[in-house]
């Protein structure tokens, strides 16, 4: 089988791939979004997906492999409809991340980086997402789920498996892994509530700012300073 036959299922991405490549002065710079585009079709980056990126960008398959295996957002095995990440880095771990991960492993009957038999959920422990002020945090297809508990985590995965519409705690509706990958490739985010350009800082971040300044946060949201 030739290289091109191996990735025949990806040829439908040719127009989108060309658009991505046209955004960069050097084609090699398009590799990261192109890998996301491949994941939007395959649900992971297969050997054929690596060939596809290499051919589109004039790179060797070794170069594409090196990048796709370095970054943890690129997957080597098919991911379920929902990639469920649980932060088990230090702060989240001690505030409940380890308990959430253990609970979900039992509840779903899968280990780390494994997918449920129905193909709906892939569970993975993830490193710090720079959202420690909302610890313990989870992600679903990279959208944040803040201030989680084992009970909330079980409810979340049950709703996702049941096909219910679920909102991330920061607004946007959760979409499938493949849909999220297309957005990460640089195409329009059609979801209601998706934030363009970032929103305002949340209550936990503002409370942390006050503490870092030696001030005492008060109030239900912790965003106002105690009067002297
Ligand atoms: S330790 Fe979990 S977001 Fe930083």
From TrEMBL:
Pfam families: 2Fe-2S_thioredx. Signal peptide: none annotated. This is NADH dehydrogenase subunit E. It comes from the Bacteria. Transmembrane segments: none annotated. The lineage of its organism: Bacteria, Bacillati, Actinomycetota, Actinomycetes, Catenulisporales. Its cofactor is [2Fe-2S] cluster. NCBIfam families: nuoE_fam, PRK07539.1-1. Gene3D superfamilies: Glutaredoxin, NADH-quinone oxidoreductase subunit E. It comes from Catenulispora yoronensis. Keywords: 2Fe-2S, Iron, Iron-sulfur, Metal-binding. Belongs to the complex I 24 kDa subunit family.
């Amino acid at each position: 089988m030739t290289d091109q036959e191996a990735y025949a299922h990806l040829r439908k991405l040719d127009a989108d791939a060309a658009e991505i490549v046209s955004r960069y002065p050097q084609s090699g710079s398009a590799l990261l979004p192109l890998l996301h585009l491949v994941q939007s079709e395959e649900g992971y980056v297969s050997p054929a997906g690596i060939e596809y990126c290499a051919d589109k960008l004039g790179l060797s398959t070794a170069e594409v492999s090196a990048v796709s295996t370095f970054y943890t957002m690129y997957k080597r095995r098919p991911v379920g409809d929902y990639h469920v990440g649980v932060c088990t880095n230090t702060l989240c771990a001690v505030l409940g991340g380890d308990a959430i991960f253990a609970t979900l492993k039992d509840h779903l009957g899968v280990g780390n980086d494994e997918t449920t038999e129905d193909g709906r959920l892939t569970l993975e422990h993830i490193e710090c997402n720079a959202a420690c002020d909302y610890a313990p945090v989870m992600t679903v297809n990279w959208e944040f789920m803040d201030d989680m508990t084992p009970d909330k985590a079980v409810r979340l995965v049950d709703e996702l498996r049941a096909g219910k519409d679920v909102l991330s705690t920061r607004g946007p509706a959760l979409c499938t892994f493949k849909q999220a990958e297309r957005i990460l490739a640089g195409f329009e985010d059609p979801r209601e509530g998706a934030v363009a350009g970032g929103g305002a800082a949340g209550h936990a971040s503002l409370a942390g700012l006050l503490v870092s300044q030696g001030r005492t946060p008060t109030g239900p949201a912790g965003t106002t300073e105690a009067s002297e």
